[in-house]
Amino acid sequence: MRSASNQQGVVIAILALVLIISPVIILLIGNAALTIQYFAGSLVSRTQELRREKGKSDRLLFQMLPPTVVKQLKQQKQVPAEDFESVTIYFSDIVGFTDLSSNSTPMEIVNMLNTLYRLFDSRIQKYDVYKVETIGDAYMVVSGLPQRNGSKHVGEIATMSLDLLSGIRCYTIPHRQGERLEIRIGVNTGPCVAGVVGTTMPRYCLFGDTINTASRMESTGEAMKIQVSQNTKDALDDLGGYITELRGSMEVKGKGMMNTYWLTGKEEELPPPVDQVESIFTLCSFIEPEFLQIINEMDDTPFSML
């Protein structure tokens, strides 16, 4: 009898203990669930933030190297040099840049080139071209690589050259109001090899005689004119729709005598009026390059890990 009473007392005590502890356990479990839910939501938010930042980094990298090259580098693959049978190369530089530099401050030159290249960068986005690099006042563009486009490359570069020349006609030197800037343009068509050079700050570089000839077309050209080689002229004739005129046979360093031509326009296409060109220039000169937009976005959106 006493044993049964003791057992009953133990059971009652256990039940009482359970009743006392249960709310505490339920409270702890609820708090744990809320904490897990909070951290899960925070993790999702941070993951989305990380993906956005990764996307910005990828877009910035795509501005520096061709997308196909970036994908191979991200996979830690060796990027082999590639042979391209036919591409068209564009070179331009500023007429009288040496004298202009000697009579201007370094900051004035940087501001001038930045404004000029922002105009060029905005305009070439309309064409199937790849900007290779800028070195000082030299601006280099290619079409036909890294993505092959058949025989379209010569037309893309020709139309782009005419467009850039049209835009530069109304460009005034920022620190010399009223003084116009002039450029020389040279174009050549032919084969080349392209590949990534270097491991620290790798660069996508072009190699071959085609590039050298394009550079000679620019350096032996005249202000505000587009000089093209015989190869480019023949390719434009095959494509049709472009107006060229023979400059004549001239001595080209390292090439001997060559027939060169001026690219003067496109058939059945009148140049836009001056006020329209100025309007286009004003619009384009204030379009911020995409890589600067990405950097600004990255600066404005600080990222913090858990």
Please provide a written account of the structure.
- This protein is α+β, with helices and mostly antiparallel strands.
- It has 2 domains: 1-64; 79-289, Nucleotide cyclase, GGDEF domain (Alpha-Beta Plaits).
- It has helices spanning 2-64, 67-74, 97-102, 106-124, 152-168, 209-219, 230-239, 274-285, 290-300, and strands spanning 82-94, 130-135, 138-143, 183-197, 203-207, 226-228, 242-252, 256-266.
- Strands 1, 2, 3, 4, 5, 6, 7 and 8 form an 8-stranded mixed beta sheet that branches.
- Helix 1 runs antiparallel to helix 9 (290-300) and helix 4 crosses helix 5.
Calculate Rg over CA atoms.
32 Å
Report the uncertain regions: 273-289, 302-306
Strand content: 15-25%
Q: Portion of residues in helices?
A: 40-55%
The number of E-state strands comes to 8
* CATH architecture tag of the largest domain: 2-Layer Sandwich
Query: What is the count of DSSP helices, taking H or I runs of 4+ residues?
Result: 9
Q: Describe the biggest sheet?
A: 8 strands, mixed
CATH topology of the largest domain: Alpha-Beta Plaits
The SSE order reads HHEHHEEHEEHEHEEHH
| Number of structural units classed as domains | 2
Overall, the morphology is elongated
CATH superfamily of the largest domain: Nucleotide cyclase, GGDEF domain
CATH class of the largest domain: Alpha Beta
Determine the oligomeric state from the structure.
Answer: single chain
* pLDDT averaged residue by residue: 80
* End-to-end distance: 62 Å
Structural class, judged by helices and strands?
alpha+beta
Feature tags:
306 residues, alpha+beta, Alpha-Beta Plaits, eight-stranded mixed β-sheet, 9 helices
